Inverse folding.
């Protein structure tokens, strides 16, 4: 049993508790894992929206090119440069000021005297557009196409050559990159950042300005878009050099407020279920919301949950995602942690209960196996004892060694008693086997229990008295009618009397009573002054093969089937057999059976 228990602990319980311990340890990481999953989801949303905005800006650039081409078709090349500003603003609401630069590097349009806006534009951008000074700009070739990941690709070798001033490697750009105004709660580390970067480390922008001249940008490319900060204010310029008149470069300064109005409708989550969880904002270069999906939302704009930079077209502008209810994430993590904890607890309870059931059943099976081994030994001894007596006395009688008639009668009675004892033993074993296989059949008929008890007592009395017992029988004279198998009930009474004989002590007294318990039942009681039943064994004595007093050590004969068979027969007749301790020492075994119903 100890070896089996050790194997069970090593094979089942130990791995189960180790897994449970690991699962419990992982519960502390559930909040981080859930936050990480949300971060990946919301970072993907901000990245996709940033790509969508880049594509919108590319479409805006393409639309400008189409407007210029349309104006060229509707006007003569000589008249268009002077009127380009007015005609472009009339056709395209996004245009704040239209400009034209000729081959000589002169600003053909707008005229400083045309309007206050034109005057401000000329003073701000005149020297840069006419290539008399260089400036730090963020620029993006207009023929670049955006992939799903937001990266750009160039369509021609000339465009690739034109992009060289700003197509530096990432590490070189990072040296000139400024610190982002936005610091996401879930930072996305870039290859330039150390894998051991701490949360308090500054977050650098992916995009850096390049110092160049306007003529360098337009020398090899046909169109493009550039961004420039003037007095800490962002300005966006688009330009186009038409192939049929390459001596002129047409451009426009875009209206930022109108551009924001164009981009605002895109600030929506891809799934409507997320509208109640997140707020999406378009942040300008000062980390202030230029457009927002939930107008009434207020938060720490510089600390979004996730954010993505838009690119060179809108440098230092970002798409940011904020949690409408930051506590909901922690609450979800706590709920998940509690649910997983309860699940682990339930599984551990199930494993413990199952282990207990397995161990209990294993213990019962081992006990049963040991009892079966004892049963074989007991049956062998039980069979050997009467057979030895029968053989010995029959040989004495057969060989004529005994001539005394009284001894001959005594020997014959011994042979008869031992044969009866052997018959009872074999019948018990056979009846138990049939009952255990549900093959036992009873011949139920109406019989008188009082007469059956008197007959059984009369048959068993000589054996008891010959063994020195004082046997008393108290049976009513009037009939006690039952519907039962007569032989089976007689076998129960004989088994109870036989137990009283085997477990006798110094006071050899046995009493048989038949009493009416109530209006519907009758009881047959067998009382003795024997050893009694040890405390705690009152129910076990009715189990198969169980013996309260070990036969090998005590010398008491028996198979451990008598009481088991007695209870099976009684319950098959609607009754039962139970034990009570007798006052003054000894035992009382009671057979309780239902009376026959009156017709």
């Amino acid at each position: 049993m100890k070896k089996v228990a050790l194997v069970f602990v090593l094979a089942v319980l130990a791995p189960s508790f180790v897994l449970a311990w690991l699962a419990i340890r992982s519960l502390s990481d559930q909040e981080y894992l859930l936050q990480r999953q949300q971060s990946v989801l919301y970072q993907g949303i901000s990245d996709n929206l940033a790509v969508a905005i880049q594509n919108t800006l590319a479409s805006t650039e393409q639309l400008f090119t189409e407007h210029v081409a349309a104006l060229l078709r509707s006007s003569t090349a000589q008249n268009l440069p002077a009127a380009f500003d007015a005609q472009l603003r009339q056709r395209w609401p996004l245009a704040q000021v239209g400009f034209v630069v000729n081959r000589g590097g002169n600003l053909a349009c707008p005229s400083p005297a045309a309007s206050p806006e034109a005057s401000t534009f000329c003073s701000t951008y005149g020297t840069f557009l006419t290539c008399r000074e260089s400036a730090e700009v963020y620029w993006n070739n207009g023929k670049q196409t955006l992939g799903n990941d937001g990266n750009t690709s160039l369509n021609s070798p000339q465009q690739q050559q034109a992009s060289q001033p700003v197509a530096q490697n990432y590490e070189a750009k990072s040296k000139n990159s400024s610190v982002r105004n936005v610091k996401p709660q879930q930072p996305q580390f870039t290859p330039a950042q150390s894998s051991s970067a701490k949360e308090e480390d500054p977050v650098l922008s992916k995009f850096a300005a390049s110092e160049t001249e306007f003529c360098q940008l337009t020398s090899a490319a046909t169109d493009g878009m550039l961004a420039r900060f003037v007095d800490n204010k962002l300005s966006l310029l688009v330009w186009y050099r038409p192939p049929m008149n390459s001596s002129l470069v047409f451009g426009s300064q875009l209206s930022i407020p109108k551009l924001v109005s164009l981009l605002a409708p895109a600030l929506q989550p891809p799934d409507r279920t997320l509208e109640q969880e997140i707020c999406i904002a378009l942040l300008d270069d000062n980390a202030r919301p230029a457009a927002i999906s939930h107008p009434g939302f207020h938060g720490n704009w510089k600390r979004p949950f996730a954010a993505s930079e838009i690119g060179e077209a809108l440098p230092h502008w970002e798409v940011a995602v904020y949690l409408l209810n930051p506590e909901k994430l922690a609450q979800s993590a706590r709920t998940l942690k509690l649910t997983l904890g309860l699940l682990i607890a339930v599984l551990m309870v199930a494993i413990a209960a199952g282990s207990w059931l397995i161990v209990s059943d294993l213990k019962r099976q081992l006990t049963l196996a040991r009892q079966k081994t004892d049963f074989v030994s007991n049956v062998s001894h039980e069979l050997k004892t009467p057979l030895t007596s029968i053989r010995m006395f029959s040989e004495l009688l057969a060989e004529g060694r005994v001539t005394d008639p009284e001894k001959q009668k005594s020997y014959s009675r011994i042979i008869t008693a031992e044969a009866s004892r052997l018959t009872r033993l074999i019948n018990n074993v056979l009846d138990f086997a049939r009952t255990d296989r549900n093959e036992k059949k009873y011949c139920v008929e109406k019989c008188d229990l009082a007469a059956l008890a008197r007959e059984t007592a009369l048959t068993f009395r000589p054996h008891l008295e010959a063994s020195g017992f004082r046997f008393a029988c108290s049976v009513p004279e009037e009939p006690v009618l039952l519907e039962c198998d007569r032989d089976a009930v007689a076998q129960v009474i004989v088994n109870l009397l036989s137990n009283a004989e085997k477990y006798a002590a110094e006071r050899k007294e046995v009493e048989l009573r038949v009493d009416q318990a109530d209006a519907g039942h009758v009881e047959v009681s067998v009382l003795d002054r024997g050893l009694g039943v040890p405390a705690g064994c009152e129910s076990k004595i009715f189990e198969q093969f169980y013996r309260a007093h070990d036969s090998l050590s005590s010398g008491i004969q028996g198979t451990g089937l008598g009481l088991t068979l007695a209870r099976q027969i009684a319950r098959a007749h609607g009754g039962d057999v139970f034990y009570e301790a007798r006052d003054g020492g000894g035992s009382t075994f009671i057979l309780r059976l239902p009376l026959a119903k009156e017709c």
Remarks:
- The two ends are 57 Å apart (CA to CA).
- Residues 141-175, 189-199 have pLDDT under 50 and may be disordered.
- Residues 326-398 form the longest helix (73 residues).
- The chain has two domains: 40-191+198-324, 440-594.
